Amino acid sequence: MTIKRIVRFCLLPAALLPLLSCAGSQHAGDEKYYFVASNIKLPYWETAKNGFMRGISAMKVKGEFLGPDSYDPAEQQKQFQQIIKTKPAGILLSAADASLLKGDIDAAIAAGIPVVTVDSDSPGSKRLFFVGTNNYEAGRMGGRRLAEILKGKGNVVAYTMPGQANLEERLKGYKDVLSEHPGIKIVDVIDFKGDPRVAFDKTQELLGNKKEPVDAFICLEASAGQEVAEVISRAKITDKTIIAFDTNDDTLKWIQQGLIAATIAQKPWTMSYVGLQMLDQVHHNPPKTLDGNFGQDPFSVLPDFVDTGATLIDKNNVGAFLQARESSKAQ
C-alpha cells in the first residue's frame, strides 16, 4: 500500500499546529533564514517575498530573500552554495533546476542545515519536504478548461522551461487530460528560457505559420501568458485560446478584456509564510536525523508535501480575486 503524505494547508492536523507558532522567546539574536528563488523581479516573487518577510518579522529573526534577477539556474546554484557556507538556521528553496541543485541540497542536509523546497521541488534530493501547489493537479485543471473551450479539437503550443520540476508536473497534468481528447494535440513545447522576449517573438513566428495554425497556447509559468496575449492583441486576432499561469497584473488585465481565457492562481504568500514557520520549527525541534526518508516513513514527524492550493481564475471571478488581493494588502 502506498501511503500519501500530503498535508493540505486548510486541513492541517493538530500535530502540525505547533509548526505555525511564532513564539519569539525561542529565537536567538543571530538566527537567520534564507529564501532562494530565481527570476525574483517577477511580481509572483514579490508576493512570495512579502509572505517570507512577514514571517521573519513575526518571529523577530533575521531573513534574506535572494536569487538572480533573471532565470539563471547556474547563478542560483552559486548563491545557494555561498549561503551553505554561512551555516544558516534554514533555507527555503525554489529549485530552478532540480537536478542541478540536488547535490548542493544534499550537502546542506549533511551539514545539518534544514532545506525545504517551496514552489518548485527537487524530489530526488534529500530536502525535508515540499510546500506549494499540487502542480500536476493544477495542470489537469488547466487541461480540463482548455478541452472545454476547444470542444475536443485543436492544435496547442506550450511554453515552459525544461528541468524545472513544477513546470514538468503541470505539463504532465495537461497531457494526461488532453490524452482523453484525441482531436486536441500539443504540436510544440517551447523552452522560452524564462525570457518574455522569447515568448513574444516565438508567438509572432507561430502566428505566421499558416500551414499548421495554432488554436491555443498554454503557458506554464507567470510571464509567458501576457506576452502571448500582447502579440495576439496587436494582430487583432480573436479566435485563439490562452490558458496562463499565476496572477500578474497584465495577465489579469487580459482576462478582464477576454483575451486570456483563464489562469491558475497559486498562493506564493502562503507558501513562503507557512514554509518559513515549519522550517523554523525543524530548526528548533529537529528530527533525530535530517537525512531521513520522510516521504516513505508512515510515522514520520514531517510531511512530504504541504499543498497550499490553486484556483482557476477567469472572467467570472477575476473581480472577486482582485478585491480579495487588495484586502490582503491591508492586513
What keywords describe this structure?
alpha/beta, Rossmann fold, 2 domains, 10 helices, 331 residues, disordered N terminus, elongated
Could you characterize the architecture of this molecule?
Helix content is 40%, strand content 18%. It is elongated and about 60 Å long. It has two domains: 6-133 and 267-308, Response regulator (Rossmann fold); 135-265, Rossmann fold, CATH 3.40.50. The protein has a seven-stranded parallel beta sheet, sandwiched between helices. It has helices at residues 43-59, 73-85, 98-110, 135-150, 165-178, 196-207, 224-234, 249-256, 268-284, 318-329; strands at 6-8, 32-36, 62-66, 90-93, 115-118, 130-132, 154-160, 184-191, 216-219, 241-245, 262-265, 305-307, 311-314.
